[in-house]
Design goal:
Blueprint lengths: L10 E9 L2 H6 L1 H6 L5 E4 L7 H12 L3 E4 L7 H8 L1 H18 L6 E3 L7 H7 L5 E5 L10 H5 L11 E6 L3 E2 L2 E2 L5 H13 L1 E7 L1 E2 L6 E3 L1 H13 L12
Parallel strand pairs: 1-2, 1-9, 2-3, 4-5, 5-6, 6-9, 10-11
Antiparallel strand pairs: 7-8, 7-11
Helix pairs in contact: 4-5
The structure holds zinc ion.
C-alpha cells in the first residue's frame, strides 16, 4: 500500500514478532510479501543465532523488515534493575545485545521489553539508547472494543510517542489456546485506518503449533488481509517518522 522509503507514514499497522524464531519468521516471509507488509522482528539472545538464522535474518532485513533488540537473556527490566541496579542492567543485558546485533549487521534502533515489563524509569534509561520502545497492554483485553482507545496512537502524536504499547495476537502456547476473539484489536485497526495513526500488535513464533507463544499462519493472514482491506499499510518500526 505504501512505497518502501515513504517517510510520510500517517497511518499504519505495526506488526511485531519477539524472541528468536527466525526459521518460522522466514517461512512466513512470502505472506508478508503477498500483502506488501513490512514488520518488526525483536530479537533476543543474538549471540545464539546460528549460521542459518543469520542468513535468514539478513534476508528478512533485505526484504525491508525492521530488526530490533529484545535483550541478551530476555530479562525483565524492572526486576533485573531492582536486583542488580540500572548500570548492571545496561551493561549485562542491553548493551551486549545491541552490540552483538550491530556486529552481525543489524543496527537496532528500537527495543521491545521482554514480557512487556517496564516502567517510566526503564523507559528513561532505554530511550538514551533506542529511538523507540515497545511495551504491551494486557492480552486478556484484546476482545474488548474499548482497548482501541489504548492501542491507537493518533497521527499527530507519532513523532513524539517513543513508547508504543502493543497487544498480543498470539493464538496460543503449547496445548493452551488463547481464544479467537480479537474484537478490540480489530476495532483499533478500523480506527487507525479511518483516523490515521498507528496500532501496534505483537506475536512470537508463526506456526500451527509450537511450545512457545505463536500465531497461526491462518490468523496472521487474516490480520494482514484485514489491514489490506482497510488500505492500512503494515510497516516496520524503522519506517516511522
Ligand atoms: Zn520475549
Amino acid at each position: 500500500m505504501t512505497d518502501r522509503g515513504d517517510h510520510h507514514v500517517d497511518r499504519a499497522l505495526l506488526l511485531t514478532f519477539d524472541d528468536r524464531h527466525v526459521r518460522e519468521w522466514a517461512a512466513a516471509a512470502p505472506l508478508f510479501t503477498l500483502y506488501d507488509a513490512r514488520v518488526t522482528f525483536f530479537v533476543c539472545e543474538p549471540d545464539r543465532l546460528d549460521r542459518d538464522d543469520l542468513r535468514l535474518l539478513r534476508r528478512l532485513a533485505d526484504d525491508g523488515h525492521t530488526i530490533g533488540c529484545h535483550g541478551l537473556r530476555h530479562e525483565r527490566a524492572p526486576e533485573f534493575i531492582a536486583a542488580h541496579g540500572a548500570g548492571a542492567y545496561l551493561d549485562r543485558e542491553v548493551v551486549p545485545a545491541q552490540e552483538s546485533l550491530r556486529r552481525l549487521g543489524f543496527p537496532a534502533r528500537s527495543f521491545a521489553y521482554p514480557c512487556s515489563a517496564r516502567d517510566e524509569s526503564t523507559d528513561r534509561l532505554l530511550l538514551a539508547l533506542f529511538e523507540r520502545l515497545r511495551g504491551g497492554v494486557s492480552a486478556d483485553r484484546r476482545a474488548d472494543p474499548s482497548l482501541a482507545a489504548e492501542l491507537h496512537v493518533p497521527a499527530a502524536d507519532i513523532p513524539a510517542r517513543r513508547v508504543l504499547l502493543g497487544c498480543s495476537v498470539d493464538s496460543g502456547r503449547g496445548t493452551v489456546a488463547y481464544g479467537d476473539d480479537l474484537t478490540g484489536v480489530e476495532t483499533a485497526l478500523r480506527r487507525t485506518a479511518d483516523d490515521g495513526g498507528v496500532t501496534t500488535l505483537y506475536a512470537h513464533s508463526v506456526a500451527d503449533a509450537h511450545e512457545a507463544n505463536h500465531v497461526t499462519p491462518a490468523r496472521l493472514e487474516k490480520l494482514l488481509a484485514l489491514a489490506d482491506g482497510m488500505s492500512l499499510p503494515c510497516v516496520g518500526f524503522d519506517e516511522l517518522p
